[in-house]
Amino acid sequence: MSEATYQLNIGKQNARNSAFLAPMAGITDRPFRQIAERFGAGLVVSEMIASAALGTGHAEMVRKLGKAGSLPHVVQLAGCEGQWMQLGAEIAHDAGADVIDINFGCPSKRVTNGYAGSALMRVPDQAMTLVESVVKATPLPVTVKMRLGWDDDNLNAADMARRAVDAGVQMITVHGRTRKQFYKGEARWAPVREVVNAVNVPVVVNGDITSIESAREALDLSGAAAVMIGRGAQGQPWLVGQVGALLAGATPPESPKGPDLVALVQEHYEEVLIEYGTAIGFRAARKHLDWYLEASEIVLEKADRSRLLNCDQPAEVLAMIEQFYSGECRAAA
Fold it and tell me: Model confidence at 108, in pLDDT bands (50, 70, 90)?
């Protein structure tokens, strides 16, 4: 496949380019999506939102509905009952969503034990009742994110995608692993081509895309219209926009370094505190502070790293960010 130089449409919504930020629970909250969008991501997707909890007004699920910026607001819902998925879609619509994504892909036991997420690939008929409920509930475009199947004996993504599109779904994203794999082994992009050949809507390939090289290979092998980047964006939310620009033949944004990296990490930290409140926010921010260190190849002494990640005083953390992310603590070449 040639490099993507076109705009991908999801119903009436337009993606800025063909590199999207994947939904990741506890990670792609509003602050993270906001940064990825600023650096040029083609589309960003909310954290997974449990439809039943949202329907009963659970504060954490309501928080996850927050829009990050000016890109189409894609809200991902998970559940196993049509009534809750329908209500969740209606609430998301009223809250300003532009696209509703249905989760058929999460491998977490907490999710699959309730026959939600990737467990739905074992019960296609039930999965389609959820699609039908959401499509009927809202005029918004509906999309689905799935895996190749439950296991290697049940690679039914193409059939599931075909049925979902027949029910009104307007984009399919496929993670190139089965549920049984969780995140082990390597993602397989070539089998996604079966999904591409089965439907007449855009297909997005996901899994192990961490660079422009892997993005191009994933597109070539799958025939997909776009890539979705998940764990590869941890600690480098600018990567999604860089890949999107390069696929479009444009100049990518530079990775922040030195004072620019310090300012970005400080901003992200402060936005997380605003999003969650200080008591929860300092814990929610720790993983991001650590990922920024790793992605930027900054090595700290064990005591310094512990102080940074365990401090619950915002002013002290901001001061440590200025000290530690300035570029003076990088690993030796």
Answer: low
Helix ranges (H only) for the chain are 30-38, 51-55, 59-64, 82-94, 109-112, 124-137, 157-166, 192-198, 212-222, 239-247, 258-276, 278-295, 302-310, 314-324
Contacts of 143 (CB under 8 A, 6+ apart): 10, 74, 99, 100, 101, 102, 169, 170, 171, 172, 173
Give the model confidence (pLDDT) of 267-323 as tens digits.
999 999 999 999 999 999 999 999 999 999 999 999 999 999 999 999 999 999 999
* Phi (first) and psi of residue 167, to 5 degrees: -85, -5
Strand 74-78, strand 19-21: pairing: unpaired
In our burial notation (b when 16+ CB lie closer than 10 A, e otherwise), range 174-186 reads bbbbbbbbeeeee
Torsion of CA 212, 215, 216, 222, to 10 degrees: 180
What pLDDT is attached to residue 114?
A: 62
- Amino acid 182 reads F
What gap in Å lies between CA 104 and CA 134, rounded to an integer? 14
**Nearest residue to 288 via CA among 23, 19, 31:** 31
Nearest to 136 by CA among 173, 93, 97: 93
How much is the average pLDDT of 127-147? 95
In this predicted model, what pLDDT tens digit does every residue of 89-101 receive, in sequence order? 999 999 999 999 9
| CB proximity list for 321: less than 8 A, separation 6 or greater | 262, 265, 266, 269, 289, 308
Buried b (16+ CB within 10 A) or exposed e, 19-42: bbbbbbbebbbbbbbbbbbbbbbb
Catalytic amino acids?
Answer: 106
For residue 230 the two structure tokens come to 């998940």
